[in-house]
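Sequence design from tokenized structure. All designs in this work follow the same two-part layout: the structure record, then the generated sequence. An example of the structure record is given first.
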């Protein structure tokens, strides 16, 4: 029987109230509560290891850490890897240093920064005075010698930038809303930093290990039969282009390294059609999309889905579970039920399909007005 999940557990909204989880607003993330539920349901214990191959803002990793369970996370987006690492670090030995550095940052003189940025979206996203303030803080955060401390304040600055910007994440793109009234960046930075320091002072984690790596879920290497559970959510088909949506944060504060589009993990297979797929079973699962517009995107997405599922299957221990939160794809001609297809592919890979549990229904529209169909967001439970 399906477990009934509270509304919104597949989304990030509930995390906005939770200390540390809310150090970066990651719209595409899921709630900590769903991870806690799954940890309980799969009876995971201290000393075991959870894998999250698409760790995003680190929800699974942080929830595992709260329960004293080891975890390993991968992602290809710099901001995701950075935020996951910063959120799951141990700050117990540097709290005084954090407080001292914050005092230093409070006292840095206001200095007008020369804006050399040419990227139009960034120039539109911030008034010049705010951009100058942000760059000034960045320069001073960069002078902090202890990397754990400087990363902490850099994530705080990224968080500040999202609150002091006209840019808003709207589905797959960035919208500029100049009617927003923006607080001064330094004021917001100090307020956010104080709150973050309070979080690390208050929360005590039981001991465990957390690893975060910048790695592609299609080709990471972990030891065979070494993982006790997988809790994850891959990018959704035709949903968002992560490198676009997080462009401002990555460009301003992190060194961007990865430029390939991530929407549907389109890599070297991006021009394949369904008939080019070598795997006969997969070809059959996708046959109804042959000849449809965006056929190549659908084919690539599911070829890649098979690759990451194979990877996960290899490192998962026998009789252990893999929980995947996934939503369908919305196209102008209809919807693609990713949960069902992922379940079929998982069976081909060797998993037992335990259940597809509905989490949410999303209306799929064309031009934001005409209803095309209804998309399911589901929890697919697999067992090796
Ligand atoms: C739905 S989000 C995961 C959100 C995460 N569960 C959370 O709560 O924050 C999907 C993530 O997959 C990442 N991603 C996309 N393609 C990837 C790939 N080939 N390998 C690893 N990560 C990838 C994206 O950067 C994004 O962070």
């Amino acid at each position: 029987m399906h477990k009934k999940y509270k509304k919104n557990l597949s989304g990030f909204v509930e995390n906005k109230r939770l200390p540390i989880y809310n150090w970066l607003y990651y719209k595409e993330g899921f709630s900590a509560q769903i991870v806690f539920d799954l940890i309980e349901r799969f009876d995971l214990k201290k000393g075991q290891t959870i894998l999250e191959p698409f760790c995003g803002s680190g929800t699974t990793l942080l929830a595992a850490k709260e329960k004293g369970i080891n975890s390993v996370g991968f992602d290809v987006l710099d901001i995701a890897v950075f935020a996951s690492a910063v959120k799951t670090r141990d700050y117990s030995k540097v709290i005084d240093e954090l407080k001292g550095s914050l005092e230093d940052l409070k006292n840095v003189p206001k200095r007008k920064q020369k804006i050399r940025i040419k990227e139009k979206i960034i120039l539109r996203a911030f008034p010049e005075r705010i951009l100058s303030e942000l760059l000034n803080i960045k320069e001073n955060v960069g002078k902090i010698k202890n990397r754990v401390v400087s990363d902490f304040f850099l994530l705080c600055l990224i968080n500040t930038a999202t609150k002091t910007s006209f840019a808003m994440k709207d589905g797959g793109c960035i919208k500029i809303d100049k009617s927003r009234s923006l607080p001064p960046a330094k004021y917001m930075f100090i307020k956010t930093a104080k709150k973050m320091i309070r979080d690390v002072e208050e929360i005590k984690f039981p001991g465990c290990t957390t690893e975060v790596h910048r790695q592609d879920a299609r080709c990471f290497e972990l030891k065979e039969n070494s993982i006790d559970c997988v809790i994850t959510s891959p990018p959704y088909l035709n949903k968002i282009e992560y490198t676009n949506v997080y462009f401002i944060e990555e460009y301003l504060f992190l060194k961007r390294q990865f430029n390939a589009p991530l929407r549907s993990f389109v890599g070297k297979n991006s021009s394949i059609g369904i008939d080019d797929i070598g795997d006969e079973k997969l070809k059959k699962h996708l046959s109804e999309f042959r000849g449809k517009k965006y056929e190549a995107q659908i084919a690539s997405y599911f070829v890649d889905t098979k690759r990451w599922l194979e990877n996960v299957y290899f490192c998962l221990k026998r009789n252990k579970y893999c929980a995947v939160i996934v939503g369908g794809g919305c196209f102008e001609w209809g919807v693609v039920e990713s949960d069902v297809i992922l379940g079929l592919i998982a069976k081909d890979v060797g998993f037992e399909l335990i259940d597809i549990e509905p989490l949410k229904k999303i209306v799929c529209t064309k031009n934001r007005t005409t209803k095309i169909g209804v998309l399911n967001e589901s929890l697919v439970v697999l067992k090796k």
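The two ends are 20 Å apart (CA to CA). We note this feature because it recurs in several other targets discussed in the main text.
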